[in-house]
Every structure is written in structure tokens, then in C-alpha cells.
Amino acid sequence: MSLWGGRFSEPSAAEFKQFNDSLRFDYVLAPFDLQASKAWAGALQQAGLISTDENQQLQQALTALAKQVAKQPELPLQSDAEDIHSWVEAQLIEQIGATAKKLHTGRSRNDLVATDLRLFCKQFAQHLVTANLAAIENLLSFAQTYQDAMLPGYTHLQRAQPIVAGHWAMAYVSMLQRDVSRLRETIRRLDVSPLGSGALAGTTAAIDREALAHELGFRHACENSLDGVSDRDFVLDLLNAASTGMLHLSRLAEDVIFYCSGESGCFSMSDKISSGSSLMPQKKNPDLFELLRGKTGRVMGHQHAMQITLKGLPLAYNKDMQEDKEGLFDALHAYLQCLQMLAFAMPELKVNKEHAALQAALGYSNATELADYLVSKGVPFRDAHHLTGELVVKAQQQGVALEQLTLDDFKQVCDLVDNDVYATLDLAYGLQQRKAMGGTAPSAVKVAIKHAQDWLHAAEAASKHVRQARLSDVDKICELIAYWADQGENLPRDKADILQAIQSFAVAEIDDEVVGCAALYVYSTGLAEIRSLGLFPSAQGKGLGAELVAFLLWKARELGITRTIVLTRVPEFFGKLNFRLTLKEKLPEKVMKDCDLCPRKHNCDETALEYLL
């Protein structure tokens, strides 16, 4: 059934229909089309355009159809409908007859497809965030396992300075952290509903578009109907995030391929992630990582194609925009699969420690340490650099390492060199000296891993159940605090206080219902306290308390806070989250602000703990 047949006296040619129809790929939007249709039916009832009974019929039919699609996602492909919207309407008419024909009142396929695609992108982007977090977790495990395993570091693909393998892995953790941030920013920007924009000029129906947007889970409705149906920036944003993410995976893959090569031999892969040659029995090929590298071009190609499609398009909807889906779907699925394969592959990768340490020692990679040594003797760095170069040439001529030169060899170039130079030239010494933040010293890598683990716990919390509180959460927060104040676990707080401090609160949700809260209070001294932590009894035992704490600890770090405290009657809970015991006497800010007001002031049974960020 066509949604536009009245104007035409002849059916479409089979050739045109095959070229024009999009059901073969947009059928994946069925769950979102049904979701949007349910919300639209409710809005039509609110506007008085359909009756309560008609809305109920539509809701029941749409729910039943959604269950069928969930069970059999390719169900729409059994029809010859033009697109997913036509299929949904045909199915509804078959089930409930004339009432189904009222559903399209006041809306267009233009605003409907834009809504469907945004809903799809929101959901898929969240899957990509989750997949990135899983990859980061396994990169962190690799970094922790090899945080002191020496590895040759390269610039210009020539040995430069020794690093540790944990430092190498943490570089990619940083990249993937930015990818998560980029995806979250994309989700925030696309979280706008075009439904109710009509074909281009808006709808004549008396629809509350903001309420409709919230019903669909969007932050708000778009403010311009022309832009609402025309905008595909969100597709470009998501393709850009996918392309940049794949670029990072490609760089990691290239590193692994090189380190696994016979020329390097610093890494080795398990048989689970390797393949062989059909001709050469000795080969063990890094096909998984080569595919990560190869699929990057595919994803980037889809991004470029979308840019070209949109270039010069006039407002509002044009059929060119049907090309926004196939490339997007393919790119996102490729990116998701590559992230999942990286997470799978990292535990199957190991560092050949002894061989890698030998490789790190080659290429005069301790030359910089020698230059620094000369600087410590009072030689200006530029002169030290030149003198070190002369010593490297001398060592090359003798066919020995720098540390194998005799003291006389050193003194021929610079008489300030003494026996203490040999300790400086030890590779382990050079590594240990690079302990400034971001350096490759094992101690610095250990700190970086801890920071990244804290970030990961917060990111996992934010991707599951925890978010920053909003003004609309105030009543639920009041209810939670009042409940635990009645139990004697929290100090009571009035609504005005919570409203004023809403930015300090985070909330935990289950099925979009607020079931827990916590606040990060910052004292004038820079000390922070996690307080007002509480969950409704029905939400306990699900890990939400730990998620709230992780979220607030990361918020504290972003604010530059170095020490966060709690006063609690359940110290074992916070102990599992790596808080450590401290003395209340070390918390004068807390004592002065709250303890004097506490009814248990003279019989306090709370334990003080702290977390150093």
C-alpha cells in the first residue's frame, strides 16, 4: 500500500519501485517507528483529534506489532511496502481497520523518519559507548599486567627511547576515553525531537511538542520545523565519532602488527586471534588487527559520502536524504564489531618481556640520559646534545653500546664524565626518572592506571543508571533524603536547600525512575564530602550505590579536588570502593558545619573515611 496514491492514476513502474523503495534497509527502524507512533497517537488524543477508545486501539495494535518485530526483526521484509512507515500503517489497517488511518493525522514521513533515525542513533551511540568502555577495561588490564615491562619506543619508526608496555597501552586508553566523550557529546546534540514538524512547515494539530519529545525520551523538541526535517548533522556527528574511533583502532592495530612482526618480536598473539598461510606453514598472521586497520577506510568512506550527499541540498526534505541510512548503518555496525574484537583480542596478546627489554636497549636509546647527565655536570643542553652525538658515533665505530664505552672513551669527548655515568646509562634508571605526570616510569604509569580505572567506573555508572541531577528530580531527592533521615542515617534537608544545591547531586535511575541520590559537597578549604547517599529499599543490592560514588569521585577529580571524605555507619561498603580510614579530628570543616547540628553529636557512631584522588 502506498501512502501517496491519490494524486496518481497509474501505478509506479517496477523498475522505479525497486530503485525508490527503502524497506530493504530501513526495516531496522521498525522498533523506533512503532515507538514514535505510540507517542504520536497519545498526542493526537490529547489534542482531541482521536478518541480515547481509538487511542487504546492504536496503542494495543502498536504494542502487539512491536512484540512481533522484537521476536522477528526481519518481519517487514516479507512485504513489498515502500518503506518502514508504509509497512507499519498497512499492518495497523489490517489489524484494526479505519482507526489506523487516523494515525498519520498532522504528521509527515519527513518528520517521522527524522525522529526514527534520531532514536536509532541515540540507542546505537550508547551501544558504542558501552563497547568502548569494554575495550578500555581490557586495555587497562593489559597495562596493569605489563606496567613495568620494558619496550622499545619509536619516533619516525626508529628506536628512540625505552618505554614500558603499560605506558603504550595507556596511550590508547586516553584515545578511547576521548572517543567516549565524543560519543556522549554527539548523543547530547542529537537528543532533540523533530516529531510534529510535519512535512516542513509544522503541524496544524494542537500538539504539545515538548511533552511529546519528553514522552519519546528526548531532552526537548526542535525549535524550527524546516531544520527539524532537514537536519542530518547528527548523522555526520555520529559518523565523525565512528571515523575518529576507527582511526584510533587503526593506529593501535598498526602498532600491534609491528610489535608482533619477526623484525620486532616484542608481542605475541595467541592462536585464538591468529591465522595461517595456505602455502607457508610457518606463518602466523595478525589478521584480526589487519582487519581493524582495513575497516577504518570503510567507515571513513561512509562519512565522506554523507558529507557529499548533504552538500548543497536545499531545504527541506529531498529524496537524496534516503542515502543517510545504508552507509550509516554499515559504518556503525563495523565500528561496533571492531570495538568488540579489540576487547576480545587484548587478553590474547602478551609481551615477550625478556626479548622486548633487549630490543629496548638497542639503538642507543639511552643517549638522552647521557645528555641529561652532562647537563647535571653543568654543560649547557645544546652542547651536551652535541657531545652525546659524538659519543654515539664513537660507540658505533667500536660496535658497542654507550654503556660499554670505557671511561677514557668518555673523557676524550668530555672530561667532566666520571664513573657515575654508568648508573645513569642503565635503562631502568632512565625509565624511573620519567616519573612526572604522563611519563613512562612504572610509578607514573601506576598512577595513570588508577586514574583511568576511576574514570572507567564513573563512565560505566553514567552509561548505566547514574546521571547529573536536574531540577525535575528535586521532589524525588527530597523523598529519598526524608526517608533516610527518618531512619536516622542522614541529616534532614529542606527543599529550598536541595534546589539551591541541585548541581551537587547525582541520581540513579531504574526504568527512568529515580531510585537513589548522592551529593558532592565542596568545603571552602577544597575538601569534598560525599553525602546524602541513599537508595529506596527496592533498589538496593543492584550496585547503584557504588555507581553513585564512582560518578561523584570522577566529578571531584574534574573539579581538581584531591581528597574526598565520607562519614558513615557502613564503612565496609566504602572500604570495598578503596576508601581508607581516617580520623574525624582531621576533618574540622565537617565538624564545624554539620556535627554541631547532629542529634547524635555526643554519641556519634559514624566512621570517617577518605579517598585520595
Notes on the protein architecture:
A seven-stranded mixed β-sheet has the order 7-8-9-10-11-13-12. It has helices at residues 14-20, 23-26, 30-46, 52-71, 84-96, 109-145, 165-190, 209-215, 225-230, 233-260, 287-310, 326-345, 353-361, 367-376, 381-398, 407-413, 421-425, 427-433, 442-464, 474-486, 495-500, 544-558, 571-576, 588-593, and strands at 150-155, 158-164, 192-193, 220-221, 267-269, 349-351, 466-468, 505-510, 513-522, 528-535, 563-568, 580-581, 607-612. The relative contact order is 0.07. It is built from 24 helices and 13 strands. The chain starts with 13 loop residues before the first helix and ends with a strand. It has 613 residues and is of the alpha+beta class. α3 packs across α6. A hairpin with a 2-residue loop joins β8 (505-510) and β9.
Features:
two-stranded antiparallel sheet, alpha+beta, 613 residues, 13 strands, arginine biosynthesis, Arg_succ_lyase_C, 54% helix, single chain, globular, lyase, 7-stranded mixed sheet, EC 4.3.2.1
Report a brief summary of the structure.
The protein is of the alpha+beta class and about 625 residues long. It has helices spanning about 15-20, 25, 30-45, 50-70, 85-95, 110-145, 165-190, 210-215, 225-230, 235-260, 285-310, 325-345, 355-360, 365-375, 380-400, 405-415, 420-425, 425-435, 440-465, 475-485, 495-500, 545-560, 570-575, 590-595, and strands spanning about 150-155, 160-165, 190-195, 220, 265-270, 350, 465-470, 505-510, 515-520, 530-535, 565-570, 580, 605-610.
